[in-house]
Design a protein that fits this description.
homodimer; mainly alpha; two-stranded antiparallel ribbon; sequence-specific DNA binding (chain B); Translin_N (chain B); nucleus (chain B); cytoplasm (chain B)
Amino acid sequence: MNRREGEGCPRRNADAVQDRDASADPSSPVIAAFKVFQQELDTKHDKYERLVKISRDVTIESKRTIFLLHRVTSVPNAEDILNEADVKLDAVRQKIGQIAEELRGEDIFQFHRAFTAGIQEYVEAVSFLHYIRHRNLISLEEINASLVFMRTEKGSAEALQPGGQVLTFQVTPSDYLLGVADLTGELMRMCISSVGNGDIDTPFQLSQFLRQIHDGFSYIGNTGPYEVSKKLHTLRQSLGKVEDACYALRVRGSEIPKHMLADVFSSRTTLLDPEEGVV
Amino acid sequence: MNRREGEGCPRRNADAVQDRDASADPSSPVIAAFKVFQQELDTKHDKYERLVKISRDVTIESKRTIFLLHRVTSVPNAEDILNEADVKLDAVRQKIGQIAEELRGEDIFQFHRAFTAGIQEYVEAVSFLHYIRHRNLISLEEINASLVFMRTEKVEPKVTPSDYLLGVADLTGELMRMCISSVGNGDIDTPFQLSQFLRQIHDGFSYIGNTGPYEVSKKLHTLRQSLGKVEDACYALRVRGSEIPKHMLADVFSSRTTLLDPEEGVV
């Protein structure tokens, strides 16, 4: 039998072997080898499935954090909301710790598609929180620094044992990039809702900030992952909406009293999601 | 404030209210109502998410059962494989019991899209097993009868007729594979039985035409292709088979059936 290793055997060989043995002999080394392959593949697929499930949880929690963060423009006590968001993001980090646990000893790029959506949403949420606090863009190093987990060997009771492992999860640059692109959409929403609240400084800051992000993406052009070009298109639209808002404020704003400014925008920004209905 | 119930309020009203109150008052009845809405929606979405996860597990286990069942054509002891498949399908039924638990007291059609894929795969697996044993098509009543669970009260998930239909359509693809692999094993009776059986299923689907769910038309197209492949196999056996010795019959088919999945590589 010329079929010891490898799974991609031509059918013709299989049929020839089949005809020689009227029925497959379960104890043959070939069948045994295939059983090993079956277990390997099943393990891999089960791990992929677990990662998909954890990644869906990460996505949902991050999205809820972002919805929470959108409310800071409309309540006086922003600190409560920021603290609540911190708590939620800690829970998300625990989940990412589970992802790191699953990926221990594995080639992460084999499973990358399973968790990439979750990681992008997490980058979006954490950079949104960072922007609200510090008005600048969080860096990839800072994100990775916060994703360090202490794990212990099974059966040990102390975390400080020398055998205790430090598990890190590295966000890939492409995930960071795509997460930042999604962030721009959320910043555009925040800008429009802050105008609705009468805040006339934020749009100008945001317009500068988004312009810089847009320029950065233009440098990348089409050398990055293929999703970047789609997101660049959306980024241009977001930037356009924010600049329209600034224009309306600066040029038209001197004519209109503040409490009627919101009505000007509700007629312009008809494309916004209902998620920001809790204004 | 003219906003007591309902979530789809026009933005203009919201902005007008906003201008009157410089900041939203957290204790107002409107905000309280929205908090209730938020919890309702979160609960609903969480339930949907749990159902999606259970449904993915059902799909994976059912698919593995089907792969297992494809092996009956190539081993002499089919009974072992059938018993193993029974065990796997029992595990799948437990999962479907969990789905039924989640859906207790809910409108199942609100969550139907979450678990429909899993249920279709389950119907495919259980009807495949039934066909291998009894050479006929399992009925919807039999499927539902095997899905009765005793929890604190009797819970009966109902497979909807549309899920049953789509599952049977998928079954035809698996039957086509079984037919081709059985020819590869030298079995020359099965293809003719299968050809009859698939023809009857095809006729049944043609009666439905385009009055059923929209996925039916796509699956009817695939069904025609499967029927075509099975009938080609029967033709090759009957017309060409008399000329070719049995051990070379498999080679005739490996050159024809180049569109098959690698899943049946374990022949």
